Each structure stands twice: as C-alpha cells, then as structure tokens.
C-alpha cells in the first residue's frame, strides 16, 4: 500500500478538511500539518499498544498533546512538526515544552513513575552536542547541570508568564533547581530527522501495515484507517477528559464489526463531525459579529463624548479670550478645573489661538 492510496482516498480528504476547520477554531498555525501529524502519531501508538496486548489508556489533547496511562507509569508527549526548524536548547518551542513538563511534574507530585517525551520530525541544531547526547540518553550529571545553566534563565521567564503569584513562581523555580537531575532523567527526546511530509508518509504506511496484520478479513484497509483516525480526532476535541479515552476495549469494539458497518459508521461520524464543527464556526462568527457591534458602539460613544468635550473647551477658550483684556496681570483658572480630568488647563493651553496671549498676561 503506497502513500498515493491514502492521498486519493475520499474519506481521508474529508478528514483533512475537518482538521482544517478544527485548526481555524483552535490554532493560529499556518497549516494543518502539525495537527494531522499529531493525530497520526496518536493513532500509530493506539494500534501499536493494542497489538502489544497490554493495559493502556490514551488521552489525546489531555494535559498535553498525548497522555498515555500504562500499568506502572504515565507518559506525556509533546508533538512538534516543523520543516524549517532545527531545535536548540534555547529554542522557544522547545523551552515551552520543557515548561509544560515542569508544570506536569509538579502536578504529579514529582514522582518518578512519569515520563515526558518531546517528539518531533525535525533535527537538533548542528552545534547542539548536549542536545544530541540528551537524545542518546547518555548525559553525565555535569552535562545535565550544564543544560540547566544554559536554559534556566529563559525557562524561568516562561514559568513566570504562566503564574500570577510571585510566591508560586519562586517555589516552582526553586523546585526545578533542586530537582533538576531527577527531572531531566524523566525527559526523552525523539528526533526523527525527516520532513513533515516524509514523517506523515511513514506514519500512514506503518498504520496501514499494522491494520493489515491485525486482520486479513479487511479488503479496504484505507477505510479502516480512516475510521480509526476519525475516532482519534473525535476524542481529541472532546472537552471532558473522561470522554477522550482510547483503549483496548474501544479498538476491539470497532474492529469486531463487519467492514461494511465500519464504513457506514465512518460516514456517519464524518457527517456529524462536519455539522458540529460548522455549527461551532457559525457560533464563533456570530459571537465575533456581536463583539464587533459592541466595540463599534463603544467607539461611537467615546467619539461623541470627545466631540462634546471639545465643544465645552471651545466655549471656555472663547470666554477666556473675551476676559483676557480685563485681566492684564492675572487670570483665574478655576473654571478650567471644573471639567473632567484630562480636559483641564493642560489640554486647553495647547490651543495656539489663545495660549501665547494668556501666558503673556499671566507673567
């Protein structure tokens, strides 16, 4: 099965269209590649773990891009798909991922039965020797401390932006400083070293191959692929964590059905999801229109108020000019300070038509 089979599959193209709309609702990313890559990684792991016949629960878009509960540990996976980036220790996207891992580390009470995975199609920078040794899981304690010194300032800035309370920020910074050697050992870096398109193709082919190996009864593996992928996306966009679960039981329930029923179910889910996302887009459009009307109304009120204040100031200026000749040595400015803050003497004196004359009279 080659990649062209998936690219020409009508269901797959419908899914890509749904992802495109989902992206518009959730992200400012310029393309859907990152979303599709993430969902394919999730599906690949779901099938792989199902075939291993061990306990697991996968929660897409839950606390992190992917959360996986295993029998004796929990994994949190960050997926980054870029063609134009070779990652460095000080790269903003990399540091944000480490910052997210810090928060999850503390949420999990700094226990050792967790694993953080930074997964990208990309490469480490050419001069990033420490990052390369980190990828190989071959860091000495001295090198781990060196990494901390390199990223601690930027990491602390990222942490500071996430928390309002100064006391909490300081506590978290101190925890990471004290527990750094334990924390860094929990982080695994996965760099595939290929383009996003090549990574997508590799995942698609691997998923199709595994579907074939799971059962010889399927004549149309691409449709089974799409049925499982739409399940991943459906779970990912759920709001409640308990509704996101992908596990052995769900996989068995899908695959135990006939191929015709699986395809019918796929078509139904595609239609429902299309309607749901379109409804969300329409609701967002209405909300934005209402917000625009409110903003326009507020701006009109501000403009009308400014116009009225300008008219009031002009009345004061005209009155003052009429009285200047009668007050050659002094001018009582009390009336100027009756008006709202921001429209008193400091603003009025900027009107050149009377300012210079008034200042001369007041000397």
Short recap of the structure:
It contains 13 helices and eight strands. With 363 residues, the chain is of the alpha/beta class.
Helix content: 55-70%
Mean pLDDT: 83
Largest sheet: 6 strands, mixed
**H/I helix tally:** 13
Rg, alpha carbons: 31 Å
Structural shape: globular
**In what range is the share of β-strand residues?**
5-15%
* Largest beta sheet: strand ordering: 7-5-3-2-1-8
Oligomer: single chain
Point out poorly predicted stretches: 335-346, 351-355, 357-363
Distance between the termini: 93 Å
Structural class: alpha/beta
- Helix and strand succession? HHHEEEEHEEHHHEHHEHHHH
Number of strands: 8
Features:
alpha/beta, disordered C terminus, six-stranded mixed sheet, 13 helices, single chain, globular
Question: How would you describe this protein?
Answer:
The chain is built from 13 helices and eight strands. The chain has 363 residues and is of the alpha/beta class. Strands 7-5-3-2-1-8 form a six-stranded mixed sheet, with helices on both faces. A hairpin with a 3-residue loop joins strand 2 (64-70) and strand 3 (74-80). Helix 3 (33-52) runs parallel beside helix 8 (196-214), helix 4 crosses helix 6 (141-162) and helix 6 (141-162) runs antiparallel to helix 7. It starts with a helix and ends with a helix. Mean pLDDT is 83; it is low at 335-346, 351-355 and 357-363.
Question: What's the SSE blueprint?
Answer:
Layout: H1 3-7, H2 10-26, H3 33-52, E1 56-62, E2 64-70, E3 74-80, E4 86-87, H4 92-107, E5 114-120, E6 123-124, H5 129-135, H6 141-162, H7 166-185, E7 187-191, H8 196-214, H9 221-236, E8 246-247, H10 248-255, H11 259-324, H12 345-348, H13 352-362
Parallel strand pairs: 3-5, 4-6, 5-7
Antiparallel strand pairs: 1-2, 1-8, 2-3
Helix pairs in contact: 2-9, 2-11, 3-8, 3-9, 4-6, 6-7, 8-9, 9-11, 11-13
